[in-house]
Amino acid sequence: MSYQDDIKALTQLREAQRGKWASISPENVARMRAQNRFKTGLDIARYTAKIMRDDMAAYDADSAKYTQSLGCWHGFIGQQKMISIKKHFGTTERRYLYLSGWMVAALRSEFGPLPDQSMHEKTTVPSLIEELYTFLRQADAWELNHLFRDLEEAQKAGDNARAEELIASIDNHETHVVPIIADIDAGFGNAEATYLLARKMIEAGACCIQLENQVSDEKQCGHQDGKVTVPHEDFLAKINAVRYAFLELGIEDGVIVARTDSLGAGLTQKIAVTKEPGDLGDQYNSFLDGEEITAATDIDNGDVVIKQNGKLVKVKRLASGLYQFKPGTGEDRVVLDCITSLQNGADLLWIETEKPHVGQIASMVNRIRDVVPDAKLVYNNSPSFNWTLNFRQQVFDAWQAEGKDVSAYDRAGLMSAEYDATELGQLADQWTRDFQRDAAREAGIFHHLITLPTYHTAALSTDNLAKGYFGEEGMLAYVEGVQRRELREGIATVKHQDMAGSNIGDDHKEFFHGEAALKAGGKDNTMNQFG
Questions:
Q1: Does the chain have fewer CB atoms within 10 Å around its N or its C terminus?
Q2: Hey, what domains does the chain have and what are their CATH numbers?
Q3: Is the model's pLDDT at 97 over the cut of 80?
């Protein structure tokens, strides 16, 4: 409903109260409604799920239409990211938020900083989703509040053309609310626990949940050693649990991202259940490392024996009780994981790799697409990669394969600043710049994200400020490095009172109290120094 139509409907509603609502302004109510478009988390999940589905279809038609996100660990960070995107690009189209389990563990746990091993409180995840959307909705209210104030000024001045222009901007306002891809780790327990947590996340607004195939109580960061995967039947039960949660809550377009850590995982907790040769359990077990036995005397106390490819094999079992996969089987296991997940309810894939290499990712995706042609990836452009060194070494290797003279470069030392201005360094930067475009086109990557960039930016900016402020620069470090840049670059937070909602609060006071309102935004408010 348009702003003007809402005013008309509210006017009729007020008149029906026969004077009891005489102090209620239909214009003010319509304004408040416009500034609070989403009433519940489920409204958000339903709205954003459709965005993701439309974006997935657009990517299938044109791989240049890939999507992106940055991981945010606080609602304010997510809010400022989306405000920045609207300011610089005019639209939030194909830009999402990512909720990283790593950052929840490191920054949001009541235990203090924790490693990414699912030790943090699982309720922190839906709480952060709710917080992010609270701040995004506040960004809508903040932006619209300025439009409504401008509209009041235009109406007071009798500038009808300007008023009509502002009403059109209000009616066509693009929300800051965008999809969040939310990390549920390995589900924080069994399938029932996964379902319960998924339901909380969806109720908070999540339209997309990312689930990984590690053992929940042995979960490791995707870029650490010691990862342990589960048989497919265990993982598929959790995919089903998430889908049931979406459907129960009426989010029929909910998106599930199935993540496989098999490329870097050499261990499994269980031997899969198998009923006949070639079934899914048998395929999983075929990757287990072991030695063939020919007699019962080959079996020692505590050994486990399975039938593998028609032979009796004593599988390699570690002191931890975990079983070891055959070396070099990671990529084959990834492909089987991905095909199985897509054929059993997942919508998107996540392949955790050890480096950003388009050819490596494409080699796996092409095998998956031989079976599931529309397979698409969410890919972690991880800060755990040394991007500079990786791409410089990729250029070095490519040149060496072409027969180009690389004697001027030390492959192991390519991180050095001495290579920044070289032909190799500049080409590596170009490859890095093009990585997302190339991988979207050649390796089926629908969504590119950086899991924990704002963890690093917060540390870097704080270091820069602390170095100057507590050193010789003193107050100039803040003024020159922060405030002056905010003013000149149009960063809205320079008026921090307004960003935090003081103008919205003042307007509400006037709605509620009329002329008796005690407002904060008068002539003595120092925010006026910023124009």
A1: C
A2: 28-267+330-456 (3.20.20.60)
A3: yes
